[in-house]
Amino acid sequence: MMIDICCTTCESDKRSIWGPGSSQLELNVLEAGNFINLEQCPECSTMWVHAFYEPHSSFSYFVKWKLLPNDFKKIHDIDSGKTLYNWHVSEAKRLWRTLSDQEQEAVELHRKRAYGHYCPVDMKVDEVNLEEQLK
Protein backbone atom coordinates (compact mmCIF):
# COMPACT_ATOMS: atom_id res chain seq x y z
CA MET A 1 0.00 0.00 0.00
CA MET A 2 1.30 3.44 -0.95
CA ILE A 3 0.90 6.28 1.54
CA ASP A 4 0.26 9.72 0.07
CA ILE A 5 2.18 12.29 2.10
CA CYS A 6 1.09 15.89 1.74
CA CYS A 7 2.40 19.09 3.22
CA THR A 8 -0.42 20.35 5.41
CA THR A 9 0.81 23.94 5.21
CA CYS A 10 1.17 24.61 1.47
CA GLU A 11 -0.09 21.38 -0.15
CA SER A 12 2.86 21.55 -2.54
CA ASP A 13 2.32 18.07 -3.91
CA LYS A 14 -1.28 18.91 -4.87
CA ARG A 15 -1.07 22.45 -6.20
CA SER A 16 1.10 24.98 -8.00
CA ILE A 17 -0.95 28.08 -7.20
CA TRP A 18 -2.79 29.70 -4.32
CA GLY A 19 -5.25 32.46 -5.19
CA PRO A 20 -6.71 35.44 -3.36
CA GLY A 21 -8.03 34.62 0.06
CA SER A 22 -4.99 32.45 0.78
CA SER A 23 -4.05 34.58 3.76
CA GLN A 24 -4.03 31.43 5.89
CA LEU A 25 -0.86 30.45 4.01
CA GLU A 26 1.93 31.40 6.42
CA LEU A 27 5.31 31.23 4.71
CA ASN A 28 8.74 32.62 5.53
CA VAL A 29 10.03 35.45 3.35
CA LEU A 30 13.39 34.59 1.77
CA GLU A 31 13.66 37.58 -0.59
CA ALA A 32 11.52 40.70 -0.68
CA GLY A 33 11.14 42.57 -3.95
CA ASN A 34 8.90 45.20 -5.52
CA PHE A 35 5.41 43.88 -4.78
CA ILE A 36 6.77 40.36 -5.24
CA ASN A 37 8.45 38.06 -2.70
CA LEU A 38 10.08 34.67 -2.62
CA GLU A 39 8.67 32.75 0.33
CA GLN A 40 9.29 29.29 1.75
CA CYS A 41 7.02 26.82 3.45
CA PRO A 42 8.27 26.13 6.99
CA GLU A 43 6.99 22.55 6.83
CA CYS A 44 8.26 21.20 3.49
CA SER A 45 10.65 23.97 2.28
CA THR A 46 8.80 24.43 -1.03
CA MET A 47 9.35 27.93 -2.36
CA TRP A 48 6.54 30.15 -3.60
CA VAL A 49 6.53 33.50 -5.39
CA HIS A 50 4.01 35.77 -3.71
CA ALA A 51 2.80 38.75 -5.75
CA PHE A 52 0.43 41.50 -4.71
CA TYR A 53 -2.19 42.86 -7.11
CA GLU A 54 -4.35 45.96 -7.14
CA PRO A 55 -6.54 47.49 -6.03
CA HIS A 56 -4.44 48.57 -3.06
CA SER A 57 -2.17 45.49 -3.34
CA SER A 58 -4.93 43.67 -1.49
CA PHE A 59 -5.09 40.56 -3.68
CA SER A 60 -2.31 37.99 -3.23
CA TYR A 61 -1.42 35.07 -5.46
CA PHE A 62 1.28 32.47 -4.76
CA VAL A 63 2.92 30.47 -7.57
CA LYS A 64 5.33 27.60 -6.94
CA TRP A 65 9.01 28.49 -7.57
CA LYS A 66 11.13 25.69 -9.05
CA LEU A 67 14.44 27.50 -9.45
CA LEU A 68 17.06 28.31 -6.81
CA PRO A 69 16.51 31.04 -4.22
CA ASN A 70 19.39 33.16 -5.54
CA ASP A 71 17.91 32.89 -9.07
CA PHE A 72 14.96 34.93 -7.79
CA LYS A 73 17.29 37.72 -6.68
CA LYS A 74 19.32 37.61 -9.92
CA ILE A 75 16.21 37.91 -12.07
CA HIS A 76 14.66 40.52 -9.79
CA ASP A 77 17.77 42.70 -9.97
CA ILE A 78 17.73 42.77 -13.79
CA ASP A 79 14.78 45.19 -13.85
CA SER A 80 13.58 45.65 -10.24
CA GLY A 81 11.20 42.70 -10.49
CA LYS A 82 9.30 43.51 -13.71
CA THR A 83 10.37 40.26 -15.41
CA LEU A 84 9.45 38.22 -12.33
CA TYR A 85 6.11 39.98 -12.08
CA ASN A 86 5.35 39.25 -15.74
CA TRP A 87 6.31 35.61 -15.19
CA HIS A 88 4.01 35.50 -12.17
CA VAL A 89 1.12 36.98 -14.18
CA SER A 90 1.65 34.39 -16.93
CA GLU A 91 1.77 31.52 -14.44
CA ALA A 92 -1.29 32.71 -12.52
CA LYS A 93 -3.19 33.07 -15.79
CA ARG A 94 -2.13 29.56 -16.86
CA LEU A 95 -2.89 27.88 -13.51
CA TRP A 96 -5.91 29.62 -12.01
CA ARG A 97 -8.42 27.09 -13.36
CA THR A 98 -6.70 24.42 -11.22
CA LEU A 99 -7.93 26.19 -8.09
CA SER A 100 -10.95 24.88 -6.18
CA ASP A 101 -14.38 26.25 -7.08
CA GLN A 102 -14.33 28.47 -4.00
CA GLU A 103 -10.89 29.84 -4.90
CA GLN A 104 -11.98 30.45 -8.49
CA GLU A 105 -14.89 32.45 -7.11
CA ALA A 106 -12.36 34.60 -5.21
CA VAL A 107 -10.48 35.17 -8.50
CA GLU A 108 -13.75 36.18 -10.17
CA LEU A 109 -14.39 38.60 -7.32
CA HIS A 110 -10.92 40.06 -7.87
CA ARG A 111 -11.66 40.39 -11.61
CA LYS A 112 -14.83 42.35 -10.86
CA ARG A 113 -13.13 44.54 -8.27
CA ALA A 114 -10.20 45.27 -10.61
CA TYR A 115 -12.44 46.02 -13.62
CA GLY A 116 -10.40 43.67 -15.80
CA HIS A 117 -7.19 45.66 -15.36
CA TYR A 118 -5.24 44.41 -12.34
CA CYS A 119 -6.16 40.76 -11.97
CA PRO A 120 -3.41 38.51 -13.39
CA VAL A 121 -6.05 36.45 -15.21
CA ASP A 122 -6.90 39.50 -17.33
CA MET A 123 -3.50 41.19 -17.62
CA LYS A 124 -1.64 41.09 -20.91
CA VAL A 125 2.07 40.35 -20.61
CA ASP A 126 4.70 38.73 -22.79
CA GLU A 127 5.66 35.14 -22.02
CA VAL A 128 8.76 34.95 -19.85
CA ASN A 129 11.40 32.23 -19.95
CA LEU A 130 13.20 32.54 -16.63
CA GLU A 131 16.02 30.20 -17.64
CA GLU A 132 16.82 32.58 -20.53
CA GLN A 133 17.08 35.44 -18.06
CA LEU A 134 19.76 33.56 -16.11
CA LYS A 135 22.11 33.13 -19.08
Brief synopsis:
The protein is α+β, with helices and mostly antiparallel strands and 135 residues long. The protein contains four helices and five strands; from the N terminus they run βββββαααα. The protein is globular.
Task: Write down the overall geometry.
Answer: globular
Number of helices: 4
Structural class: alpha+beta
| DSSP helix fraction | 25-40%
Q: Which range does the strand content fall in?
A: 15-25%
Number of strands: 5
- How far do the termini sit from each other? 44 Å
Return Rg in Å.
15 Å
Features:
135 residues, alpha+beta, five-stranded antiparallel sheet, 4 helices, 5 strands, 31% helix
Question: How would you describe what is shown here?
Answer:
There is one protein chain. The protein is α+β, with helices and mostly antiparallel strands and 135 residues long. The chain is built from four helices and five strands. The protein has helices at 69-79, 82-95, 101-113, 130-133, and strands spanning 17-18, 28-32, 36-40, 47-53, 59-65. The protein has a five-stranded antiparallel beta sheet, with helices on one face. A hairpin with a 6-residue loop joins strand 3 (36-40) and strand 4. The mean pLDDT is 91.
Topology (elements, then pairings):
Elements: E1 17-18, E2 28-32, E3 36-40, E4 47-53, E5 59-65, H1 69-79, H2 82-95, H3 101-113, H4 130-133
Antiparallel strand pairs: 1-5, 2-3, 3-4, 4-5
